[in-house]
Amino acid sequence: MHQTLCQHLPEELSKPQRRNLSWVIAGLHQAGHVHFSKVASKRVGSATLESKTRQVRRFFSNEQVDPQCCYEPVAELLLKQAIASGSPIRVLVDTLELSGERQALMAALAHRRRALPVCWQVRRRTGVSDAEQQRGPPQALSRRINDACDDEGACDDVPEVIVIGDGAFHSTDLMSYLSDKGWSYRLRLHSDTYVQLSNGKWTQVGDLAPEEGAKTAISTLST
């Protein structure tokens, strides 16, 4: 695995950086854990576990290693494979709480009950993300898809894109952007969000909830 990974890592990394990164990736996979000591325990060699753990920690602390540069080939490969499959591309948009009052907005490919990140933006946590911030990951994803298509020469063969998100991505501006892109979306709306029915009447989403055990279908809805 180590030798295979080295062949796909960016050339911008030095040889030692490529070697260390490949060991980290292999360790993450084999250990099934993100703790440094667990990852380090899977690295071969006669060094002590404490020494191996320090090596892993130094790699992640190295400011000369650009995370974006390291992950770029992975995200590109994931998107190319998703496009080539011909199946609908299901994209999960989500927010991740980080340390230090930070928050990451992420777009990930849904694959076999896993989320494979392809785009993300980190911002200072100041409450609920606004419409412009919510559009960030889908816009970055659109650029990545276009780049992947240009490389493959298959822009006309992009499968349907379906964006799935929770209540943090309920902005009507985001819905309009996705509609303009021709993408489908499944976004959880707040119960007090107003929607317009086909008869022109405006009502809150919560008022459309059917009684227990009942079913209802709405053919046309505008937010």
TrEMBL record:
Q: Check the record and name the InterPro entries matching this protein.
A: RNaseH-like_sf
Q: What is this protein called?
A: Transposase IS4-like domain-containing protein
Q: Which organism is it from?
A: Salinibacter ruber
